[in-house]
Write a structure and sequence with these properties.
By secondary structure, the chain is mainly alpha-helical. The protein contains seven helices and six strands, in the order ααβααββαααβββ. The strands form two sheets. Strands 1-3-2 form a three-stranded antiparallel beta sheet. Strands 4-5-6 form a three-stranded antiparallel beta sheet, with no helix packed on it. α2 packs across α4 and α3 crosses α4. About 20% of the residues are buried.
Length: about 180
């Protein structure tokens, strides 16, 4: 095996490891909680920051606010979170866990997104830029530049603005499909 082949081999194996850990952690979270990885990540982040504004939650999760709103809508339907308007400024909405949400958090496993964010935030800017450049190259090699960024093992898309797309490519505004 040449030096170049050995490096390619190592890169491919590391990509496999990343997918493997994400897949295993997501399945474990779904089995234990019934939630997708992004939903569980949101619940855990809300628990840590509660009460938290939607915009602050989006920043902490490195997601667009519209994506977070979609996740929160599903969590609210399940009775795990509630939105509370502040008394000082009725436009400001805080999100907090319900009793059911708090109970779920205590028995929920760690989520890979949180591990990834924490690990990346601890790196220097130079290392982060190197990782970003390398992933940019991988995306280009795969021709995936135009793919919308779907959250890992989830139907959620991380799109800017209020419009999201379903897995079938239909426009989604709120909970209504727009054809």
């Amino acid at each position: 095996m040449t030096k170049k082949s050995a490096v390619v081999f190592g890169i491919i194996d590391n990509i496999r490891r990343v997918f493997q850990v994400i897949n295993e952690q997501s399945k474990r979270a779904k089995r234990k909680t019934g939630l997708t990885g992004p939903q569980l990540w949101a619940i855990k982040t809300i628990a840590a920051l509660s009460p938290v504004r939607v915009s602050d939650l989006a920043l902490r999760m490195y997601l667009h606010p519209a994506t977070v709103v979609g996740i929160l809508n599903r969590l609210e339907l399940q009775g795990l979170i509630r939105r509370v308007r502040t008394t000082g400024d009725r436009r400001v909405v805080h999100v907090e866990l319900t009793d059911e949400g708090n109970a779920l958090v205590t028995q929920a496993p760690q989520v890979h997104q949180d591990l990834l964010v924490s690990g990346l935030e601890n790196l220097t800017l130079v290392k982060l830029q190197a990782i970003a450049a390398s992933f940019g190259l991988l995306v280009n090699i795969l021709g995936a530049q135009e793919l919308p960024p779907r959250l890992v093992l989830s139907p959620e898309l991380n799109l800017q603005g209020k419009e999201e797309r379903t897995s079938q490519g239909e426009a989604l505004k709120g909970n209504k499909v727009v054809v």
